[in-house]
């Protein structure tokens, strides 16, 4: 089969298409999927540049997100049959084969039925960002109807899905965006307050919007100074959830303590990295909840670029350039 492998740590040029053997089923509970598409995420580029989790297992097939058709099943598989359309987030961090390939394998419990009204390419774009947004908003921030929420980079891959999910939960939502096109997208997805961060102070804009109180929760997908300044945009006793590692000086820690803020981190890869079976099953259930929302027309995913598998390096260059709207997928057609 054809697959794109990260042959070494380095720039996008280390991604090389090769012909490799079809993956065998690792256990009776595994399925083999003929992939139609793979989602491309910023974590893929980070793991290509610096394979943090399994640096000794290169070359490796990257790509956590995939969608396709079940091609083969193990003797103990009960959830799927050959021919079923599926989507999932699994592998791609170095220990198991990822989705930059024509086929991959995964445990049946980590796989969900593809939403009937999504194309395989759109379905492949959804898993990682959906799980990230769900865990951040539902499980970390515990967003409730009527609460106020600030989402940073709301037109990005995670941001635009989080915005739709927050709207479904009934939150009042403010967002930061970089330009008019992204502002229009965010407004159409349910944002009430649009903050163009290049020309406006998002902290002051948020305080003005909330009558000086600040928001119940901030969802940070940017990190750095944006995360630190978000401490001032959250109300007393509020929550700040970040998907990035954050550096905090003692003064920042003291500010968070003084304001009684809950600081939470969201890394949806934790169940894979720590090999937590039950947690991976829980994440599959998130995909099933999300699929139901998609089929009801309450959730969608914006795919900005569809590229053939052999252009994986181009996809990584687009990701690393920053400012992405929506998602990138690789197709195996």
Task: Outline the structure in words.
- The protein is an alpha/beta fold and 333 residues long.
- The protein folds into two domains: 2-126 and 270-331, Quinone Oxidoreductase, Chain A, domain 1 (Alpha-Beta Complex); 129-265, NAD(P)-binding Rossmann-like Domain (Rossmann fold, 3-Layer(aba) Sandwich), CATH 3.40.50.720.
- Helices cover 33% and strands 27% of the residues.
- It has eleven helices and 16 strands.
- It has helices at 42-49, 120-124, 127-140, 157-169, 180-188, 202-209, 224-233, 250-258, 270-273, 277-295, 312-321, and strands at 2-6, 15-19, 30-40, 60-61, 65-73, 85-89, 103-107, 111-113, 148-151, 172-177, 193-196, 215-220, 234-242, 262-265, 303-308, 327-331.
- The strands form three sheets. Strands 3, 5, 6, 7, 8, 15 and 16 form a seven-stranded mixed β-sheet that branches. It has a six-stranded parallel β-sheet with strand order 11-10-9-12-13-14, with helices on both faces. A three-stranded antiparallel β-sheet has the order 2-1-4, with no helix packed on it.
- Helix 4 links the parallel strand 9 (148-151) and strand 10 (172-177).
- Helix 6 (202-209) packs parallel to helix 7 (224-233).
- The two termini are 13 Å apart.
Concise synopsis of the structure shown:
The chain is an alpha/beta fold and 333 residues long.
Could you give the topology of this structure?
Blueprint: E1 2-6, E2 15-19, E3 30-40, H1 42-49, E4 60-61, E5 65-73, E6 85-89, E7 103-107, E8 111-113, H2 120-124, H3 127-140, E9 148-151, H4 157-169, E10 172-177, H5 180-188, E11 193-196, H6 202-209, E12 215-220, H7 224-233, E13 234-242, H8 250-258, E14 262-265, H9 270-273, H10 277-295, E15 303-308, H11 312-321, E16 327-331
Parallel strand pairs: 9-10, 9-12, 10-11, 12-13, 13-14, 15-16
Antiparallel strand pairs: 1-2, 1-4, 3-5, 3-7, 3-16, 5-6, 6-8
Helix pairs in contact: 3-4, 3-10, 6-7
């Amino acid at each position: 089969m054809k697959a794109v492998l990260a042959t070494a740590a380095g720039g996008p040029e280390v991604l090389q298409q090769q012909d490799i053997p079809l993956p065998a089923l690792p256990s009776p509970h595994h399925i083999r999927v003929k992939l139609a598409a793979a989602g491309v995420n910023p974590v893929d580029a980070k793991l290509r540049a610096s394979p943090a989790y399994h640096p000794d297992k290169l070359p490796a097939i990257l790509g956590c997100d995939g969608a396709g058709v079940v091609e083969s099943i193990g003797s103990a598989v009960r959830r799927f049959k050959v021919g079923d359309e599926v989507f999932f987030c699994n592998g791609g961090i170095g220990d198991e084969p990822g989705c930059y390939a024509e086929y991959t394998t995964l445990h049946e419990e980590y796989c969900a039925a593809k939403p009937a009204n999504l194309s395989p390419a759109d379905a492949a774009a959804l898993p990682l960002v959906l799980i990230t947004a769900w865990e951040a908003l539902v499980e970390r921030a515990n967003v409730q109807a009527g609460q106020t929420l600030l989402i940073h980079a709301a037109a990005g891959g995670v941001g635009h899905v989080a915005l739709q999910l927050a709207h479904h939960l009934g939150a009042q939502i403010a967002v930061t965006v970089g330009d008019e096109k992204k502002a229009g997208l965010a407004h159409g997805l349910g944002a009430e307050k649009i903050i163009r961060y290049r020309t406006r102070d998002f902290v002051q804009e948020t305080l003005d919007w909330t009558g000086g109180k600040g928001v119940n929760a901030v969802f940070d997908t940017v990190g750095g100074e944006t995360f630190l300044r978000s401490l001032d945009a959250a109300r007393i006793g509020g929550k700040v959830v970040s998907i990035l590692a954050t550096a905090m000086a003692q003064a920042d820690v003291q500010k968070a303590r003084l304001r009684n803020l809950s600081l939470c981190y969201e890394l949806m890869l934790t169940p894979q990295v720590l090999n937590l079976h039950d947690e991976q099953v829980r994440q599959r259930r998130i995909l099933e909840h999300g699929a139901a929302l998609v089929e009801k027309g309450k959730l969608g995913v914006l795919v900005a670029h569809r590229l053939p598998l052999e252009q994986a390096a181009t996809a990584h260059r687009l990701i690393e350039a920053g400012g992405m709207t929506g998602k990138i997928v690789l197709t195996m057609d």
